[in-house]
């Protein structure tokens, strides 16, 4: 009879001891106002209440820093719902974390967010040897010279996209731009990485739908990202969908292992990865699992984030006609005044994409203000400390180290007129110019050894899409009933309401 009361008493005593221990940990650490019982929950509540309920939490650090006058880093006490955090919002300190120390990823937490989509061996969450093998396997397929080989295929998919936009222009309807963009870029990603042709733009493609079924089960708010999902139904759906997705990708990988590349004179990223592992005689079950997880990671992350970036770029250009005009003038200069000839010119001279300097600046500015993945989560280590300019050393352990690039790229002392959409800042080369972007301050793809592997493909496809659409269409974002564009949490940071848009022919 006494067992249950004694167990409850022991659990209560343990919880109180842990509470005191956790709260004392922050006694001499910089951060927002700290409560002896609630830690920083009250601060988080106030910040969250200032934003729409579904807003992405990657903006919290920026708002918190401004509201409480915080410095280049600060600590957050969110126990027991989240691990204690060290938040970095300054380039030099960020580079200590991601390059000098190269702290490992906070894998356990990140797998709660994306593990059911990308797999346990995803290069996003893996550390040590597992990460190194997957990175080395797929790096050759994303070298700039190899990425340029995909330009003709990218052009074909973008022309299909133009047909979809043309249909909407004729109907003059309002549609979700994020979905339309994601379908196009999914086709591009699958073609570049696997060499397969999907039909996601016009139909419900099985490959894309498998990804979307898993993504729909991801946490949709800040706290649920840290809590265990107790729904047996959702757990079963994750398991079932995951097996179906792995079987689909596994068939594609097995076919390439057995039969080799499907195109003469062109290896896709999967072919280079298989060749790398065959050369090292590592083609065992573990390697096959790594290839499957890496393909899922590259295709899902690549199409998801690039689609959002394209949406943000369209939205920004629709609000800044003078910037749009300058982009169009650059396209006229490079590809001629007739937009209809741009596709053939790109196929014949893909290197011309390297001369789209202002177009790239526009993309970079959209990524600065609305990064689809604005944080990098690392695990602090007992032997590693954060060193500030005055020589003071601050602990990284036992904290989850959150490099918040979203907050860094909105700092007024790093980006003059930080809330202004001003692409010209990315063309400034004079360090004395107030709009000069300091070294390592622009970091939507992260920096260091674990920087985004698909960065070159992402920027290339975005430039091509803008070349083939901006002179043929006008874009208008259509938010109604007082709503507006902000970033929502949907695996990554996507435009609210899917960016309702109306397009018209020019």
Observed structural traits:
51% helix, 506 residues, 9% strand, three-stranded antiparallel sheet, four-stranded mixed sheet, 18 helices
Strand and helix layout:
Layout: H1 3-25, H2 41-49, H3 60-68, E1 73-76, E2 85-88, H4 91-100, H5 107-118, H6 128-138, H7 144-148, H8 151-171, E3 175-176, H9 177-194, H10 206-215, H11 232-259, H12 269-279, H13 285-319, H14 321-335, H15 342-348, H16 357-369, E4 375-379, E5 385-387, E6 393-395, E7 400-404, H17 405-408, H18 455-469, E8 473-477, E9 487-490, E10 492-495, E11 500-505
Parallel strand pairs: 2-7
Antiparallel strand pairs: 1-2, 3-11, 4-7, 5-6, 8-11, 9-10
Helix pairs in contact: 6-12, 8-9, 8-15, 8-18, 9-13, 10-11, 11-13, 13-16
DSSP helix fraction: 40-55%
Distinct helical segment count: 18
Assign the CATH topology. Answer: Cytochrome p450
Low-confidence stretches: none
**Which structural class do the helices and strands define?**
alpha+beta
Number of strands: 11
What do these coordinates show?
The protein is α+β, with helices and mostly antiparallel strands. It has a single domain (3-505), classed as Cytochrome P450 (Cytochrome p450), CATH 1.10.630. It is built from 18 helices and 11 strands. It has helices at residues 3-25, 41-49, 60-68, 91-100, 107-118, 128-138, 144-148, 151-171, 177-194, 206-215, 232-259, 269-279, 285-319, 321-335, 342-348, 357-369, 405-408, 455-469, and strands at residues 73-76, 85-88, 175-176, 375-379, 385-387, 393-395, 400-404, 473-477, 487-490, 492-495, 500-505. Strands 1-2-7-4 form a 4-stranded mixed β-sheet. Strands 3-11-8 form a 3-stranded antiparallel β-sheet. A hairpin with a 1-residue loop joins β9 (487-490) and β10. The relative contact order is 0.16. One of its GO terms (molecular function) is heme binding. It comes from Aspergillus cristatus. Pfam families: p450. InterPro entries: Cyt_P450 (IPR001128), Cyt_P450_E_grp-I (IPR002401), Cyt_P450_sf (IPR036396), Cytochrome_P450_monoxygenase (IPR050121).
């Amino acid at each position: 009879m006494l067992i249950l009361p004694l167990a409850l008493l022991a659990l209560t005593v343990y919880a109180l001891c842990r509470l005191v221990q956790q709260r004392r940990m922050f006694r001499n650490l910089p951060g927002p106002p700290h409560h002896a019982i609630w830690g920083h929950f009250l601060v988080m509540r106030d910040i969250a209440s200032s934003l729409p309920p579904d807003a992405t939490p990657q903006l919290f650090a920026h708002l918190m820093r401004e509201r409480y006058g915080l410095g280049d880093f600060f600590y957050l006490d969110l126990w027991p719902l989240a691990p204690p955090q060290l938040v970095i919002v300054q380039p030099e300190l960020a580079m200590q974390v991601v390059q000098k120390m190269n702290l490992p990823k906070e894998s356990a937490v990140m797998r709660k967010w994306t593990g059911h989509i990308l797999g346990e061996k995803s290069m996003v969450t893996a550390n040590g040897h597992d990460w190194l093998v997957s990175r080395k396997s797929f790096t050759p397929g994303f070298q700039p010279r190899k990425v340029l080989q995909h330009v003709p295929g990218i052009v074909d998919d973008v022309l299909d996209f133009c047909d979809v936009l043309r249909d909407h222009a004729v109907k003059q309807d309002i549609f979700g731009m994020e979905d339309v963009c994601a379908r196009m870029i999914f086709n591009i990603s699958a073609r570049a990485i696997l060499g397969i042709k999907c039909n996601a733009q016009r139909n419900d493609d099985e490959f894309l739908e498998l990804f979307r079924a898993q993504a729909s089960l991801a946490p949709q708010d800040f706290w649920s990202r840290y809590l265990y999902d107790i729904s047996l139904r959702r757990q079963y759906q994750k398991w079932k969908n995951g097996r179906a997705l792995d079987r689909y990708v596994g068939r594609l990988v097995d076919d390439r292992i057995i039969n080799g590349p499907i195109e003469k004179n062109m290896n896709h990223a999967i072919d280079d990865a298989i060749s790398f592992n065959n050369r090292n005689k590592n083609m065992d079950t573990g390697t096959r699992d790594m290839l499957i997880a890496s393909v899922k990671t590259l295709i899902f992350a690549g199409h998801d984030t690039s689609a959002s970036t394209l949406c943000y770029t369209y939205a920004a250009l629709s609000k800044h006609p003078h910037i749009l005009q300058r982009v169009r003038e650059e396209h006229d200069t490079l590809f001629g005044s007739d937009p209809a000839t741009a596709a053939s010119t790109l196929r014949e001279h893909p290197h011309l994409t390297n001369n789209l300097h202002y177009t790239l600046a526009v993309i970079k500015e959209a990524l600065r203000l609305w990064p689809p993945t604005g944080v990098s989560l690392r695990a602090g280590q007992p032997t590693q400390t954060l060193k500030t300019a005055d020589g003071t050393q601050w602990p990284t352990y036992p904290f989850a180290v959150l490099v918040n690039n979203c907050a860094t790229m909105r700092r007024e002392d790093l980006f003059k007129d930080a809330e202004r959409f001003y692409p010209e800042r990315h063309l400034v080369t004079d360090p004395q110019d107030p709009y000069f972007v300091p070294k390592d301050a622009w970091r939507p793809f992260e920096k260091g050894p674990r920087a985004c592997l698909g960065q070159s493909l992402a920027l290339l496809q975005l430039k091509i899409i803008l070349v083939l659409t901006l002179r043929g269409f006008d874009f208008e974002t259509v938010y109604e009933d007082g709503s507006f564009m902000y970033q929502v949490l949907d695996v990554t940071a996507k435009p609210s309401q899917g960016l309702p848009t109306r397009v018209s022919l020019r």
